[in-house]
Amino acid sequence: MVDLLCMGEPMLEFNQLPTQPDGSRHYLEGHGGDTSNAAIAAARQGARVGYITALGQDMPGDSFLALWAREGVDASTVIQTDRWLTGVYFVTHDAQGHHFLHHRANSAAAMYTAADLPKPAVAAARMFYVSGISQGISNSATDAVFAAIDVARQNGVKVAYDTNYRPRLWPPARAAAVMHAAMALADYALPGIEDVQIMTGLTDPDAMLDFYLRLGPEVVVLKMGESGAYLATPEHRLRVPKHDVQVVDATGAGDTFCGSFLARILAGDAPEQAARYASVAAALKCTGYGAVAPIPHAAEVFAVLDRQ
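Below the sequence we write its predicted structure tokens.
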């Protein structure tokens, strides 16, 4: 049995390194995919983690299986098929930040259906975690996530949901309809402030928290990037400042926040403690290139917290 069972789309990552003196560009091969990143972040914080997806029988798919084996993420519920390929993406950097170029059409993960769902594994977890990307990659993936949430709720498994809106996957109105229907079934809502602005038109953080609390989650954590995070329950609210670091690459910072937050919740922390911990973990992730390699382990995070 795992503590945290994540579901979504892993993608092999090629992250642009600084331009060479001769003008050439080199890319660092790594691993990405929001819920896979979060799964690894949670595992590095000490949680027992499993993953649900489909991979191609290809080099990227084999690479992910090896990665999860190294990280202690249970991949027994991962399907590998020769019908479809594993998705890949590129990360580029400029003065405006980091940018993504995804190649995911008809990926193995996008072809996942509700019939593929390992229901006993979902029922046996303590928490189930997905994102808007988990549902946005295809109609069948949308349905599969809803089916998994239904199994989780029927078995007393907590549900956590991160928006992670990607405009190339679906228009705002459809994304909002699907995500908010899912969040109404969640216990923990982890929206990003830019996602919320696009999907709801709201601009005030307190109004955003009000909106998601009304949907039904018992805890809402609004991720606000450089402005930190804003946590709310029906009883109280708390601003969580960001931890200052020299940012090298913010790819996967939000995923690290989510995975670290949920790991600490599962470890018994109150939401306020978990959010402060996750804020430090997400900042430390930004000190290196790639979505996965710089994710800190628990000892690194606690070392920072002990100095605060």
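The longest helix spans residues 139-154.
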